[in-house]
Structure to design on (282 residues):
């Protein structure tokens, strides 16, 4: 019997709609054999997730997703995976990144106000329920007020990179983030390479440089990948000696078309991806 995992999920600790414990229970209910919680720039949900995992006897890996400074048009994200409580070591860096988010949010809301949207920072904070404020929380307030028809519309028209209300936050260079994850005892992985706007040869060159910086894996299995995308990424993993990982990028109701474990219906991340990471840490 095949064993499947999901190494890219989000909770209410950042911009998901399920609590960490709920995501963990959902993972076990749908038949996953393991999952990772990888909230944006925070590990605030990890302890809750690990406690629930212990209670229901389910394998959960501590993780984080960090945005890095890549280009004006495209965003690059790095995933960090931690074992044996080592996620605590990266908390200082994440606090600095959260401060940058907090500086960006009021500027973004002011831009939306200037575009005619009547929303306030207080409303967005309430939507985030005391957790890290992220763009989906802003989009959710816009949706509730009837300004947009979906969360995706807010991103497509207003708050993605290059759109009128987008504000860039302070980020580490990819090499710096990789170094920080490694220094903290984690495994750095390039998230969803298909979002980088690179053809096969340019991605090949990028991975060569990221491997020199210390990257250990890439997200070869992902919800928005085509079969060709996955095949190309697996070939690049072999060429560069990288671990192929993967996940759905589950956010709950904020991304209703993405289901935990199966993405858009046909995602299957093999357990071997996690086995390779665990062997590396032993």
């Amino acid at each position: 019997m095949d064993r499947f995992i999901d190494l890219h999920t989000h909770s209410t600790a950042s911009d998901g709609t399920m609590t960490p414990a709920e995501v963990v229970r959902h993972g076990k209910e749908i038949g996953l054999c393991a999952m990772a919680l990888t909230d944006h720039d925070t590990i605030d949900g990890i302890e809750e997730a690990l406690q629930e995992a212990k209670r229901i006897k389910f394998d959960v890996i501590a993780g984080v997703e960090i945005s890095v400074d890549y280009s004006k048009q495209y965003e690059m994200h790095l995933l960090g995976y931690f074992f044996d409580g080592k996620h605590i070591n990266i908390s200082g860096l994440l606090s600095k990144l959260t401060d940058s988010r907090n500086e960006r949010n009021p500027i973004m809301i002011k831009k939306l106000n200037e575009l005619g949207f009547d929303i306030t920072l207080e409303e967005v904070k309430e939507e985030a329920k005391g957790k890290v404020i992220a763009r989906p929380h802003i989009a959710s307030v816009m949706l509730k007020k009837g300004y947009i028809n979906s969360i995706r519309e807010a991103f497509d028209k207003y708050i993605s990179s290059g759109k009128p209300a987008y504000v860039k936050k302070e980020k580490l260079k990819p090499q710096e983030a990789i170094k920080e994850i490694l220094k903290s005892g984690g495994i750095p992985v390039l998230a969803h390479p298909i979002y980088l706007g690179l053809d096969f040869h340019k991605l090949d060159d990028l991975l060569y440089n990221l491997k020199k910086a210390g990257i250990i894996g890439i997200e070869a299995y992902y919800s928005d990948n085509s079969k060709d995308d996955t095949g190309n990424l697996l070939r690049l993993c072999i060429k560069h000696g990288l671990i192929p990982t993967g996940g759905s990028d589950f956010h709950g109701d904020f991304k209703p078309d993405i289901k935990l474990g199966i993405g858009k219906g046909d995602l299957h991340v093999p357990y071997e991806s996690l086995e390779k990471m665990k062997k590396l840490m032993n």
In short: The radius of gyration is 18 Å.
